Amino acid sequence: MAAEQTAPMTPQVAMTLAAIAATAATPRPSGETVPEQLNRVFLGITRQLADTDLATGADWSLRWLALAPDNANLAYLAADPSSSSFAVVLRGTVGNVTDLLEDLDVGTVVPFTAVGAPSAPVSVSQGAMAAFTQVVSMSSGGVTLVQALTEALAGAAQTPTVYVIGHSLGGCIATMVAPYLQARSWPGATPQFGLCTFAAPTAGGPDFADYVDSLPWIVNARYYNPYDVVPLAWTSLDDAEGWYPAPPGPAANDEVDAVISVIAGLPGPHPYAQPGQAVPLAIDYGRTHDPDFVKSSLADFLGQVAFQHANSTYLGLLGAPDVLAGPVVRALSTNSGEGGTALAVAGSGFGPGAAVDFGPVPGQDLAVSGDGLAISLHAPPGVGVVDVRVTTELGTSAAVPFGRFAYGGPPPVITTGLFPATGPEGTSVTVTGVNFGADAQVFFGTNPAASPQVQPPYEIVVDAPAPSTGFGRPSTVNVTVVSNGYSSPAGPANEFTYLKSSPES
Prior knowledge:
Blueprint: H1 11-20, H2 34-49, E1 61-67, E2 74-80, E3 85-91, H3 97-103, E4 109-111, E5 123-125, H4 126-137, E6 139-140, E7 143-144, H5 145-154, E8 161-167, H6 169-182, E9 192-198, H7 206-214, E10 219-224, H8 254-264, E11 277-280, H9 298-309, H10 311-317, E12 328-332, E13 336-337, E14 342-348, E15 355-358, E16 361-362, E17 364-368, E18 374-378, E19 385-392, E20 395-396, E21 404-407, E22 414-419, E23 422-423, E24 428-434, E25 441-444, E26 447-448, E27 453-455, E28 459-463, E29 476-483, E30 486-487, E31 495-498
Parallel strand pairs: 3-8, 8-9, 9-10, 10-11, 13-21, 23-31
Antiparallel strand pairs: 1-2, 2-3, 4-5, 6-7, 12-14, 14-18, 15-16, 15-19, 17-18, 19-20, 19-21, 22-24, 24-28, 25-26, 25-29, 27-28, 29-30, 29-31
Helix pairs in contact: 1-10, 4-6
């Protein structure tokens, strides 16, 4: 009897399941055991799957979850009983894009023997194999992915469908886990399998891609943003040297081209290929870009790369609601003091059970406001200058300049803007920020500005010094204020672009 065919899962649902896998991916700064983090992830994923406003529509429930001891990979199994559908969802390393690509160790390939003995050798990168091995070996309460899926399929009411899904490195791992699962024997009716990846780099060569595509799938789709670098790995990374469209940019400069060329050369003599039906997502770059990263610099290029690769960008391109946001710290009511100092953390996403860490030390006497926008507390005993971060079941906030706390010393120096942010050498520039001391010095790139006019603590007026010139010297530089022992953090608001002086008439 032929297997009963069901309508494939929509990409909106698949991408939502993939985005939910990133829940609570960052460990708590003050430390937590793997079981403690796993429990926090479990609560966060359960909460998101129950959200009726997401594309998943509260139809899915969490059946199994495992986290690698080094937090590099995560897998979860969800079920939709109404359609006898199951989703194996994978998450890889969460970090910057450059680190992600280098972690794949694509200069060495190994045979992919986990699917038995194909008629011809099938090769994958050594890094992808390591991630795959970790995922299929992970267990929760002694139960592995295969064991959890075996139990779930045994209880299916009709011919089940198993989707293997992942975004980014999770998608790369999915292209290996899916054929591995399909090669196994399962209880009851043989399940149909689907493979959906988003923003995935390749795992192997043409032999691997051909093997994956030769298998029977209810769907075998590879969704990608045409302005995302990661899906170009390792087939056409050099294409990114022609990005990003200007205006608004950022256009790749010599520094960007050099970085891309180095990364593109990592595979050495090994050719790579993408499995799955390629589905480019329609994008109007003029509307779908991060306006904070449009200047011609390596920092802005990498910032735009991160935006184009993000889960939220893919959900937006698919017309799906974004998943629930984790906590965000915007500012502290005071940025310096001693242990016991009373202060407030302002931001968003601070729900019940929120924890606050001052570097590696938990905060004390927390009280979360009813609207989740503030937390009052006391600073714990500590030393040095630390990042104050908030952790909830949905994740841990990123470290931000206005979220730094200095024990026993002057508050951190932060720049907030330049007026103007472009101009030739000699342009009078007003630098705004906080905690500028009378000793403040200003640097444009590595070049000091002469005779800064400091108006403590919020403003400095300087003339832009002569720029560095020559090959590889960018026209956009970071403006740094050095004062009270601090140097201000870099950021898009602190970049100055040199323009050529107008020719004399």
